[in-house]
């Protein structure tokens, strides 16, 4: 029996090694063919020496990197039910989504709706170093959440059409790291990118399709909050100009702090948002008396207090923060 088991284990080991060697040879052959084709292309098009070397080196570096698996690379995922697939995708991007207080609110109100949104409107993008995500002047078709990695955003200069000789903004660069939302404005207004976003290291981003997202907000409170948020956001974009504010960019739109926008919403929406925050405050056991809880609830319902949950999970009332008990 021991001899038979040893024979079987040896056969499995040899088969695995053989498969690995064959796979390695096929991969290596594929790289050789691609590089040979590239060199022929460059030679046939009379590409200069230094430029040809730069292109060749860049391609060699890319071919030496192991590509990350994407959803379409995993056929087994097609066997998942629609709801389970949406739940899986939501689990991947949840931490990034709830970094935005509005999406954190939606998750708390209707988790299933946000999961469907992730399944149909959110895609994952893997980037290698020097991959371009978008450039200035392009139409904003998605908002992006950086999951991990490092990118560089270059804000491009432009001139005022009424005074072409007057440059309103000079080129500047900003590092973009994990947890950052980029081009959020594309979700709420017709947006044109104001700069160039490029990865400087291997990175992963989640892209929210601006056309699909509104179609998936089935819950009435989600639709209402999204509508009022978009209207107020649009007003801030239009009014953001010197000397009162800086021009909006893909990274920052002046005066769009979440609490400030909620303060400008209708009383009905303020109450809906406030009651969700109220539930979190009152869950801090032993922190508030029943009389204090009732007083806060009455203030929210009557429009005398605006209470929100921030993207960090803290509860903010007007200009201050509620702090949970130690």
Helical percentage: 40-55%
Oligomeric state: single chain
What are the secondary-structure elements, in order, as H or E? HHHHHEEEEEEEEEEHHHHEEE
Q: Could you tell me how far the N terminus lies from the C terminus, measured between alpha carbons in angstroms?
A: 63 Å
Biggest sheet architecture: 4 strands, antiparallel
Our Rg estimate from Cα atoms comes to 26 Å
Query: Please, what is the average pLDDT?
Result: 85
- Number of DSSP-assigned strands: 13
Measured by DSSP, the beta-strand proportion falls in 15-25%
Structure classification? alpha+beta
Give unreliable regions as ranges: 162-166
| Strand arrangement, major sheet | 1-10-3-8
Principal-axis shape: flat
In DSSP terms (H or I, runs of 4 or more residues), the helix count works out at: 9
Topology:
Blueprint: H1 2-44, H2 49-64, H3 82-97, H4 101-109, H5 111-121, E1 122-127, E2 132-134, E3 142-148, E4 151-155, E5 158-160, E6 163-169, E7 172-176, E8 181-182, E9 195-199, E10 203-209, H6 220-239, H7 258-263, H8 267-282, H9 290-301, E11 307-309, E12 315-317, E13 320-322
Antiparallel strand pairs: 1-10, 2-9, 3-8, 3-10, 4-7, 4-9, 5-6, 11-12, 12-13
Structure description:
46% of the residues lie in helices and 18% in strands. The protein is built from nine helices and 13 strands. The strands form four sheets. Strands 1-10-3-8 form a four-stranded antiparallel sheet. A four-stranded antiparallel sheet has the order 2-9-4-7, with no helix packed on it.
């Amino acid at each position: 029996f021991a001899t038979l088991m040893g024979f079987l284990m040896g056969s499995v080991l040899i088969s695995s090694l053989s498969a690995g060697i064959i796979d390695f040879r096929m991969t290596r052959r594929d790289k050789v063919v691609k590089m040979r084709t590239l060199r022929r292309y460059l030679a046939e098009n009379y590409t200069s020496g230094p430029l040809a070397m730069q292109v060749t080196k860049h391609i060699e570096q890319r071919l030496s990197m192991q590509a990350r698996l994407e959803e379409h690379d995993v056929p087994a995922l097609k066997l998942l039910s629609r709801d389970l697939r949406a739940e899986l995708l939501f689990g991947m991007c949840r931490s990034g989504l709830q970094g935005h207080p509005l999406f954190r609110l939606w998750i708390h109100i209707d988790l299933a709706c946000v999961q469907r949104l992730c399944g149909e409107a959110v895609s994952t993008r893997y980037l290698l170093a020097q991959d371009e995500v978008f450039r200035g002047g392009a139409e904003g078709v998605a908002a992006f959440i950086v999951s991990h990695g490092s990118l560089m955003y270059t804000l491009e200069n432009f001139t005022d059409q009424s005074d072409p000789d007057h440059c309103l903004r000079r080129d500047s660069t900003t590092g973009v790291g994990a947890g950052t939302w980029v081009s959020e404005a594309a979700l709420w207004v017709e947006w044109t990118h104001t700069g160039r976003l490029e990865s400087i290291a291997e990175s992963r981003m989640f892209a929210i399709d601006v056309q699909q997202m509104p179609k998936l907000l089935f819950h009435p409170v989600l639709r209402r909050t999204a509508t009022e948020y978009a209207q107020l956001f649009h007003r801030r974009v239009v009014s953001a100009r010197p000397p009162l504010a800086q021009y909006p960019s893909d990274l920052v739109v002046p005066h769009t702090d979440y609490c400030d926008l909620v303060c400008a919403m209708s009383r009905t929406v303020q109450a809906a948002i406030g009651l969700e925050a109220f539930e979190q405050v009152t869950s801090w056991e032993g922190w508030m008396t029943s009389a204090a809880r009732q007083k806060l609830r009455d203030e929210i319902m009557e429009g005398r207090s605006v209470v929100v949950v921030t993207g960090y999970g803290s509860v903010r009332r007007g200009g201050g923060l509620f702090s949970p008990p130690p």
